[in-house]
Amino acid sequence: xxxxxxxxxxxxxxxxxxxxxxxxxxxxxxxxxxxxxxxxxxxxxxxxxxxxxxxxxxxxxxxxxxxxxxxxxxxxxxxxxxxxxxxxxxxxxxxxxxxxxxxxxxxxxxxxxxxxxxxxxxxxxxxxxxxxxxxxxxxxxxxxxxxxxxxxxxxxxxxxxxxxxxxx
Length: 168
What we know:
- The chain has one domain (2-167): YqgF/RNase H-like domain (Nucleotidyltransferase, domain 5, 2-Layer Sandwich), CATH 3.30.420.
- It contains 5 helices and 7 strands, in the order E-E-E-E-E-H-E-H-E-H-H-H.
- It has helices at 48-59, 80-99, 109-115, 123-133, 147-167, and strands at residues 2-8, 14-19, 24-29, 32-34, 44-46, 64-70, 104-107.
- A 5-stranded mixed beta sheet has the order 3-2-1-6-7.
- Helix 4 packs across helix 5 (147-167).
- The two termini are 17 Å apart.
- 32% of the residues are buried.
């Protein structure tokens, strides 16, 4: 069996693992650790070892795994520090995937959001759609701040749909 991982990157990002059939297996926040104080350029970072362990558990049963990773780009008004942090986070996630030999597809937010009718929708709409489409995952999406979990779930759903189209 092959699983699809949807990854919403960022220090408050999340990962969803679902089966090709669309059954949600796990939803978890990206593990983060403190790396420095006020003088450090990057104060928090992805805990790559913990992410490695979580994703390795999915593969331990011999299951295949393909990740759909939301790509990021700078936006007007964002500071240099935040963009450096986001780039560092994205690179850490890519490194973990590479070390585990998990193939991944970079997907732009506009691409998966357009496919799901979420262009220009706020994060609460993403959360509501995820709960509507995946009622079994509602416990992972209870809080307003769980919008990153919802987006990782929707990215995984997009990836599963895309994989099904390529097979059919």
